[in-house]
């Protein structure tokens, strides 16, 4: 296999195996970020929305009643099958679900009014290509909404968070810092309109189960987290029960930007 394609193959493997978990995952299906997404735009019902890396279909599900049409794309066939069933079972007839790569979108220039990518970009191997493609397919004055897990600004905390995510999920590439996202989207030509940070509570067992982490690897990961320096455990609010991590806290950020 071409090593350049390995990250995409890892994503397809992980999400193919664990597709159903992402539809039912409460941390993906719910959240203040979804409510904020719906509330921050004055929807007219005429919008054409692109949902990039739809995963369990939660963005498409939330926005379908508010807009003219949603095109939901993902790289993984298995997760598209479960998200399509999820959306159809919820009665949405204005959502098209199709396979596509976020870094090579199969759409003409200026095809959409709004593009949303939620809790997915940390899996992308070439973030700049994703941002460029999103900019390309948006109409002028179109809106880009990016929601993703973000790393703290301090390098020490950034490294720790990305390491534990990688150990839980080998398809994880990197959660960027908020400052990195702002720089990247502005360099592409977007204008940042809004930025929000959401504390994100992870229940360790559910967090590991979502990606089907084997018990021995789960125990090793818990040990690493519990043996972390005091400042790291304080930063990530790491708690323990009966010698295992019980919960910890990360963060997600929501950025809204305009294509000018």
Tally of separate helices: 12
Distance between the termini: 40 Å
Full CATH superfamily name:
Vaccinia Virus protein VP39
Percent range for helical residues? 40-55%
CATH class type: Alpha Beta
User: Would you give the CATH topology?
Assistant: Rossmann fold
Q: Report the major sheet.
A: 8 strands, mixed
Number of strands: 8
Strand residue content: 25-35%
The SSE string, one letter per element, is HHHHEHEHEEHEHHEHHHEE
* CATH architectural arrangement: 3-Layer(aba) Sandwich
C-alpha-based Rg, rounded: 18 Å
Low-confidence stretches: none
Helix-and-strand structural type: alpha/beta
Keywords: Methyltransferase, Transferase, Ubiquinone
Protein name: Ubiquinone/menaquinone biosynthesis C-methylase UbiE
GO molecular function, one term: S-adenosylmethionine-dependent methyltransferase activity
Organism: Sediminibacillus halophilus
Question: What is shown here, in short?
Answer:
It contains 12 helices and 8 strands. It is 42% helix and 26% strand.
Explain the overall architecture.
This protein is α/β, with parallel strands linked by helices and 260 residues long. It has one domain: Vaccinia Virus protein VP39 (Rossmann fold, 3-Layer(aba) Sandwich), CATH 3.40.50.150. 42% of the residues lie in helices and 26% in strands. The protein has helices at residues 6-17, 19-24, 26-29, 32-39, 58-63, 77-89, 127-137, 155-168, 178-188, 204-210, 215-226, 230-235, and strands spanning 48-52, 69-74, 95-99, 112-118, 138-149, 190-203, 239-241, 244-259. Strands 1, 2, 3, 4, 5, 6, 7 and 8 form an 8-stranded mixed β-sheet that branches. The radius of gyration is 18 Å and the shape is globular.
